[in-house]
Amino acid sequence: MNTELNRLEQALWIDVNSYGKLYYSENELKFKSKIDSINYQFQSNYVLRNKDTFNIKLGNKTIYFKGSSIKKGKVDGIKLELPKQYKNQSLFIFKYNDATEFIE
Question: How many other C-beta atoms lie within 10 A of the C-beta of residue 77?
């Protein structure tokens, strides 16, 4: 379980720092740049990153933009919590917003 959690954390940090724009909608997190994109799909027993599967059971998932929890839209923070049987471990991944984030 720790290995899968570490793999997921590493992939999320790399993608957050590699892609300029992040969007969330209906259990799907989309990372976009001018030349590429990656999608994460969050299911109850696994997380799918394009064709790569992380076999990890998630508890609560909270998505943030500008410090507020959101249901869909632009993203700058993600908190993933594991169920109690996994010692309530959690991940918090974030990115710093620059001026381009607020220009449409």
Answer: 19
Residue 75: give the domain boundaries: 2-102
**pLDDT tens across 19-44, in order?**
878 999 999 999 998 899 999 999 98
Structural domains counted in the chain: 1
Q: Which tens digit of pLDDT belongs to each residue from 71-100?
A: 999 999 999 998 887 787 899 999 988 766
Residue 39 neighbours by CB distance under 10 Å = 13
pLDDT of 55 above 90: yes
What's the pTM? 0.87
HEC assignment per residue over the chain: CHHHHHHHHHHHHHHHHHCCEEEEECCEEEEECCCCEEEEEECCCCEEECCEEECCCCCCEEEEECCEEECCEECCEEEEECCHHHCCCEEEEECCCCHHHHCC
> Amino acid identity, residue 92?
F
